[in-house]
Amino acid sequence: MSASPTLFARGVSKMFGPVRALNDIDLELGPGVHGLLGPNGSGKSTLIKLFAGQLKPDTGEVRLNGRDPFADADALRRLGLCPEQDHFYEDLTGREFVTALTRLHGIDAVTARRLADNAIERVGMGPRAGVTLGTMSRGMRQRIKVAQALAHDADVLLLDEPLNGADPVARADLVSLIRALGDEGRCVVVSSHVLHEVEAMTHDVVLIRYGRMRAEGDILRLRELMKDRPYRIRIETADARRLATALWTLPHVRAIELISSTTLDLTTTQLDAACIDTPRIAETVGLVVERFTSPDGDLESLYRYLMNHA
After folding, report:
1. SS3 letters across 227-284
2. pLDDT tens for residues 50-67?
3. For 7-218, which CATH superfamily applies?
4. pLDDT tens sequence across 90-129
């Protein structure tokens, strides 16, 4: 693999007739897993196609490991692509399909077969490698698509909706695999609309809306920058009213709502301070915090907020 695999875009815009699919995108992604998020039509697939050399930007520049993927075919040898759409040779077996696509990278037949078998094993399709693609379930086909992206040992992986159609077991397996690929130092971009699965893979996200960058970086850091939106925290304890009375003394508390005799919702402007202060205050009034969760601290909450505030 490259010493530091990267994807780079600067001032990138892309038009399709009168429609501006991407507008002035600046982005640099290095090793690790990156979630690419946005509503349908936001420009996610267009950005992936630009990085894959399938499209040329109208303005700006795109680089794959420092090279132009549209003009430099050799740059694509270090790229693995799992597209959203299925385009299979239905009469081929999974092994034949992955081997054939691996050979397109200039790899000899014997080596390509070995690499294909390794990749198929890694996605959990070893026992079914001889099944024809036309008879495979959608989830099995997804695994084969991921295998062909991995087989030639690419250091940059673009995975567009890689979990589509996969059953729960396959989804869990693929999530673990994608995390492992990032841990190996590869640059992995995962486009997905299933937010909790992206959060299971990575906390590093890129959010796009209407072809523009809305946010990029670590989920927790991005949430901390949203000073105009306080956190809600749900707390469970033996006596919620007594704890609520004590918590009102904290300067960062903005609101408290009693949900039940044992549950309260606290609104704070400082999540870290609330995490430290709540158990301390509870102890002073003879209580124990039995459960402490923040429905505003996850990826889904961040996504909703950013998508609804253009």
Report:
1. CCCCEEEEEECCCHHHHHHHHCCCCCEEEEEEEECCEEEEEECCHHHHHHHHHHHHHH
2. 999 999 999 999 999 999
3. P-loop containing nucleotide triphosphate hydrolases (3.40.50.300)
4. 999 999 999 999 999 999 999 999 999 999 999 999 999 9
226-308 classified as CATH 3.30.70.100: yes
Give the integer Cα–Cα distance in Å for 45 and 84. Answer: 8
How much is the pTM?
0.76
Task: Give the number of residues written for the chain.
Answer: 310
C-alpha 106: how far from chain center: 30
The span from the CA of 78 to the CA of 65, in Å, is 9
What pLDDT score was predicted for residue 298? 57
Q: Which two tokens stand for residue 102?
A: 């691996």
Residue type, 6: T
- Domain extents for the chain? 7-218, 226-308
Q: 264: part of which helix (H) or strand (E)?
A: strand 263-268
218/251 Cα distance (integer angstroms): 27
Q: Is 63 helix (H, G, I), strand (E, B) or coil?
A: strand
Q: How far from 93 is each of 90, 110, 128, CA to CA, in Å?
A: 8, 17, 9
32: left (phi over 0), alpha (psi -120 to 50) or beta: left
Our measurement of the distance from residue 183's CA atom to the centroid of its chain's CA atoms, rounded to an integer in Å, reads 14
CA distance 271 to 98: 48
In angstroms, how far is the first alpha carbon of the chain from the final one? 38
